[in-house]
Amino acid sequence: MVSTSFDEIRVEGLYFHYEKKPALKEVGFSAKKGRITAVIGPNGAGKTTLFKVIDLLARASSGRVFAGGKDVLALPPAEARAWRQSISFVMQEPYLFNMSVRQNLAVPLKMRKIPRSKIDRIVQDAIIKFGLGEIAEKKPFRVSSGERKRAGLARALVTEPALLILDEPTASIDPEASYLIEQYLKDLRAEGRTIIMMSTHDLFQARRLADDVALLFKGELIEAGTKDDIFDRPRNEITRKFVNGEILVENVRESCEALGRAPSTLRSTG
Known about the structure:
Elements: E1 8-18, E2 21-32, E3 36-40, H1 47-54, E4 62-67, E5 70-71, H2 77-85, E6 87-90, H3 101-111, H4 116-129, H5 145-157, E7 163-167, H6 175-191, E8 195-199, H7 203-209, E9 212-217, E10 220-226, H8 227-232, H9 237-243, H10 246-259
């Protein structure tokens, strides 16, 4: 059985093929407890695929993911279920059930057969901590995107996961909501009990939040290291171009050329 408390998760030689095309190619890096590891890279780099493999939502073609002394990709079904219950993965748009926010927060606790009296206390504490009091009795479709993101994060944390995975936790929400989520993540890191992995397209956010950074590009791990290593002392030319915004410009130019249009003609009309 994989321990429900571990200090590090280590990815080694991970490959994943989608329709015979490699979406991940020999990806390997580690993330540690009490630190935030940001996985960055352009669209299609493999960030979400990597997270799905770790959460056993996608089956790797080959490679290993070590936690608590075991390869979680090779666990038998019962242990695989226990692994999934020891971690939380919040997708870019959290899936909340068609019930009140309060009831949503209780779902993972009920699945773990926590006593009702304890569930009520844990959920109420989360509602207070995440400032969800005004929306606690509302259904998800009646609240804002930022409030849904906060509710999704709160639900992920009520089980006190050993590993928290966040896919673009502040995408498409306003600055105030983004600020609140960033503060929650800083507080969680300060508690020192959780490994936090997150993807982001916001390089300024990665600089603000991350302790460690891993850059994926076209399914490959280009470079991994501390935040200062990646942003201030990159060893790889692709890393340097990406953190300076040059790769994004190149991608736009290539897309324009493929469409037979000049970059200046692809301007937003909104």
